[in-house]
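Review session, final week

We close the course with one last complete record, chosen because it touches almost every idea we covered. It is Clavaminate synthase-like protein, a protein from Hyaloscypha hepaticicola with 372 residues. Go through it on your own first, then we will talk.
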Amino acid sequence: MATENITKSQTSLHQSEDFSFPTLPPFPNDIPTAPLVRLSLPSLRTSPEESDRFFTASKELGFFYLDLRNDPHGERLLSQSSRFFDFAPTFYDLGREELSKYDYKNVGSYMGYKGFGSGVVDEKGNLDRNEFYNIPKDDFLGISDKPFAHPNLLYQNQDLVKSYIHDSHKLINFLLSLLNSHLQLPEGTLQSLHRVDQPSGDQIRIIKSPPQPPSDQRTALGKHTDFGSLTILFNRLSGLQILPPPSLAPPGKEPEWTYVKPLPGHCIINLGDAMTKFSGGLLRSNIHRVVSPPGQQAKETRYSLVYFSRPEDKVVLKRLEGGIIPKGKDGEDGEAMNSKEWIKLQALRLRRVGVESEEERRRLWQESGRGN
């Protein structure tokens, strides 16, 4: 499939393909959408030109669509994601009281359940409007020394959980191999930092975002960059927005928050902070947030399926040496943290929410660095 940008001025490009989800309200056709490149997984396997476009997207925006159709591995991921979307309502029917038994933030972990309204999302101290469950790779692949308990429903569906972890990691590994080649690093360098059988913060996240009151629709998840390496996202309703860098904004205009339209048969891939650190800033981890979906989609409950790939726990997040990675100046990179501590810090820093006042929540937001 040809690579293209999705923008308001290019809506005609879509007329030959059906980019709607039959059981859901359509994305409004009069709302601009983000300039994500569309890439094809089958083409990435064989075409140097497609691989070049992938590397350009990884440097310029750090977000892109990946068409998984007509590829055996991609088709498996599409099938598994559909099963998770069927599973999600049943899972959340367990109820917040039951799921809250699996919230492990008080023991210093971001795995398990995060309840609705338990994290700060903006400089005003507002709280989030979603709930999610982080399913740890290490627990379900038997890697954890002390695995957490999880709802029985997950264990009853552990074949799906395990197969999705393995197939997601396989896709991540393929993309890392392409980045490794473009960065001209020694063969296997990036892949060796992300082995599936080693302890890491890799996880599946199932997100539920209920409709917001029509008179009070605001941010559901605050602006942030992802903390790990690569993220695979499946969603069917919009709500994800990105803030493009100035280089991708229309001439003479400041960057604006812009919706990313979900496309059937595709996932959305984005790079995280670890890839920016490893590449000395060559690769981009772009800022994004989640708001209420546009138009009639706002009346629907929004489910999302995410796979977060993180470097192995012991990997130190610092600039790699070699290839085309620019050399840093003395002291430029500061004191590096290992992946386990870095991810834990980033994931929990805005979830210290309980008796805090609105003023305290605003302070937490500013200290997180997201207000900059």
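Two points worth writing down before the exam:
Residues 1-15 have pLDDT under 50 and may be disordered.
Residues 194 and 311 are 5 Å apart (CA to CA).
Good luck, everyone.
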